């Protein structure tokens, strides 16, 4: 049953990627102006070059064939040339994607570790007041405001701010995200602690620390679904945070592409974000299936 669910999730993701990229292409075709201007920028080109580009892109073919050709170009990295950076679109977008992926993974891991530690202190050690103050403070301001606050604190303490580096955006996202995700984890753990098997473990004399770890195992599948969703949002563009600290990720790239009307990069950005969100949803589903014993048929 588990492998069937995994295969079903993979097939659903592949179908979603194909539909999404086809939709992006159709939307690009619907933009004002001809497709070559939208896909390759506004630089003037001769009629001969235009016809050659139309032939290479398959724009002189029926629409369904154009979509098939576009799928091939998407999966081979032939996304055109950026009019602002004067580089291949795939190279520009992929570099920003890697930077955002590093930031998203690091922020997700650190936020999860902090949330688990706070939950452990609250539910296993009894430090409920200590573990509630920081999450409440964290959720009191959005990430953009926390970025400004942390920048002011760093300047006041004369700590050098490495604009373009990952340290400050990472700290901002961890501080801003801990409040929400701690409450999610706390709610899941409290629900798990109310299950009959926990009472059975207590009756057997199992320590509260071991019970907490077992409850954490049952809470993690749902918690990870939420964290993967946030990871996708960070990759899609933590724009305010990245712009504040000049971090070269997808958020900053989107702002630059919009301001420079770099259509090829905008389309490439949309494509890679759509594919990434689909893949993250698939990975989240597979992890949920693997980690949840009930979905694997384990009692």
TrEMBL record:
Residues 97-288 form the ABC transmembrane type-1 domain. InterPro entries: BPD_transp_1_N, MetI-like, MetI-like_sf. It comes from Ignisphaera cupida. It is a multi-pass membrane protein. This is ABC transporter permease. GO terms for cellular component: plasma membrane. The chain crosses the membrane at residues 103-121, 133-157, 163-185, 222-247, 267-287. Keywords: Cell membrane, Membrane, Transmembrane, Transmembrane helix, Transport. It is found in: Cell membrane. The keyword DNA damage does not apply. SUPFAM superfamilies: MetI-like. It comes from the Archaea. The lineage of its organism: Archaea, Thermoproteota, Thermoprotei, Desulfurococcales, Desulfurococcaceae. Pfam families: BPD_transp_1, BPD_transp_1_N. Coiled coil: none annotated. Belongs to the binding-protein-dependent transport system permease family.
């Amino acid at each position: 049953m588990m492998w069937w669910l995994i295969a079903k999730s993979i097939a659903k993701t592949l179908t979603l990627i194909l539909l999404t990229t086809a939709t992006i292409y159709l939307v690009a075709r619907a933009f004002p102006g001809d497709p070559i201007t939208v896909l390759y920028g506004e630089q003037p080109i001769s009629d001969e070059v235009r016809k050659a580009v139309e032939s290479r892109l398959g724009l002189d073919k029926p629409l369904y064939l154009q979509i098939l050709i576009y799928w091939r170009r998407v999966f081979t990295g032939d996304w055109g040339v950026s009019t602002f950076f004067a580089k291949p679109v795939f190279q520009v977008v992929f570099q920003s994607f890697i930077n955002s992926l590093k930031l998203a993974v690091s922020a997700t891991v650190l936020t999860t570790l902090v949330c688990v530690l706070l939950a452990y202190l609250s539910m296993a050690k009894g430090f409920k007041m200590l573990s509630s103050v920081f999450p409440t403070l964290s959720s009191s301001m959005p990430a953009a405001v926390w970025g400004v606050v942390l920048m002011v604190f760093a300047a006041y303490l004369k700590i050098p701010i490495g604009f373009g580096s990952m340290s400050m955006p990472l700290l901002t996202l961890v501080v801003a995200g801990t409040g929400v995700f701690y409450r999610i984890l706390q709610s899941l753990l409290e629900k798990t602690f109310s299950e009959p098997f926990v009472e059975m473990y207590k009756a057997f004399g199992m320590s509260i620390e071991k019970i907490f770890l077992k409850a954490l195992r049952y809470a993690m599948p749902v918690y990870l679904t939420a964290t993967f969703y946030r990871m996708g949002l960070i990759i899609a563009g933590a724009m305010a945070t990245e712009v504040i600290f000049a971090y070269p990720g997808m958020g900053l790239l989107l702002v630059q592409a919009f301001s420079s009307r770099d259509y090829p990069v905008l389309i490439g950005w949309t494509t890679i974000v759509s594919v990434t969100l689909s893949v993250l949803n698939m990975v989240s589903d597979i992890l949920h299936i693997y980690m949840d014993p009930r979905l694997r048929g384990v009692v």
